[in-house]
Amino acid sequence: SLHLRFQCFVRFALGTGCRLDEIRGIDSKRDIYWTRGMVHVMGKFRKERDVPMQPDARAALEEQLEEEGKLWTQNPQRLREVLAEGSARAKLPSLTPHVLRHTFGTRWLQAGGDIYKLSKILGHSSVAVTEQHYAHLLKEDLVAASQQVKIPVAPRGAGNVASS
């Protein structure tokens, strides 16, 4: 439902978790570290960081540059409109750049990624900010993880109970 340029945008956003303005600010000659698999972005409050690219994000970046020779510099409102129109045509819930960012974070944690590393990737000011957005996933993960951990407990009435 989207032109190739916007398909690449969606794949890049889903594979990096970058904010819309961060993506729009990437200079293809200066900010892409192909050998390291990273992209340099200017985040909120002019804080700079290097963001790792998932393989499909890197492929989307390569395709975009090969196809058009430039990255996504469209007006941010235009990008939002194109995503909304595409999601409506595909009969999907409204797709926004921020939804793509949140989807990246959700997938990261569901795949077993560490919340501290996610916080750095997303450019949050602290892990507490990341926890605010993803606490519900952490609770689900704790239950699932606790079912995988087998802690030996003495049978009832065994007498000696280990103290901590």
SSE blueprint and pairings:
Layout (H helix, E strand, L loop, with lengths): L3 H11 L5 H5 L7 E2 L4 E5 L5 E5 L2 H14 L7 H14 L7 H14 L4 H8 L4 H22 L16
Antiparallel strand pairs: 1-2, 2-3
Helix pairs in contact: 1-3, 5-7, 6-7
Please give a quick description of this structure.
The chain is mainly α and 164 residues long. It has helices spanning 4-14, 20-24, 55-68, 76-89, 97-110, 115-122, 127-148; strands at residues 32-33, 38-42, 48-52.
Features:
164 residues; mainly alpha
Would you write up a description of this structure?
The protein has 164 residues and is mainly α. It has 7 helices and 3 strands. It has helices at 4-14, 20-24, 55-68, 76-89, 97-110, 115-122, 127-148, and strands at residues 32-33, 38-42, 48-52. A 3-stranded antiparallel β-sheet has the order 1-2-3. A hairpin with a 5-residue loop joins strand 2 and strand 3 (48-52). It is elongated. The chain starts with a helix and ends in a 16-residue tail after the last helix. The model has no long low-confidence stretch (mean pLDDT 90).
Please compute the radius of gyration using only Cα atoms. 20 Å
Count, helices: 7
Order of helices and strands: HHEEEHHHHH
Q: Residue ranges: pLDDT <50 for 5 or more in a row?
A: none
Round the mean pLDDT to the nearest integer and report it. Answer: 90
Specify the overall morphology: elongated
Q: Give the beta-strand count.
A: 3
Biggest pleated-sheet summary = 3 strands, antiparallel
**N- and C-termini, Cα separation:** 58 Å
Task: Give the amount of beta strand, in percent.
Answer: 5-15%
The assigned structural class equals mainly alpha
Percent helix among the residues? Answer: 40-55%
Largest sheet: spatial strand order: 1-2-3
